[in-house]
């Protein structure tokens, strides 16, 4: 019995440990993404996927998005900013991504109607939050470029291409957010954790792999 328990806990530890990889930064711009077309300066559409994570509830899940609502003049709602998220269920509509004109973009609603309904869908540029201790991948906000990375263990390149940036980190944190007005099922907020930052309370870590890589 004891040995069986030990085997199970060893297995769980193996599955949940974040692999110790060395990220290698690829050049800035769209050519570092899969399925790039030099003639149009664009990639095909793709999603990104949580892999090698500490959280079995979202392992293999693809990106969705959410946004923050502000109240403007005459009590009219407006979209302050939006951000990529990971869903609590993998069967709901995903947020399409592509790289064009040198920038990663998401196909998202960018405004609200007077009644508060999301509208004006477009390929909106994504940027890493410019603020310290934040690392959220945002739209409608200027920030730092999210970059493409390869992963190495020793000299050996690992399969896939990964999103990262700041001080060459590719470790993302995922924190569960309860259902709320703009997210029927709740979601996991995702942030890029700088190499100097600690993982947060109730936050699990993982990598974000580019589909088709
Ligand atoms: C990230 O890695 C690249 C390539 O090794 C290096 O040129 C760059 O200075 C690094 N960036 C930071 C912020 O450490
Ligand atoms: C962490 O999760 C527990 C259980 O859901 C909750 O009670 C606690 O408030 C959370 N802590 C933070 C800092 O969110």
UniProtKB/TrEMBL annotation:
Keywords: Signal
Signal peptide: 1-17
Protein's name according to its UniProt entry: Secreted protein
Organism of this sequence: Paraconiothyrium brasiliense
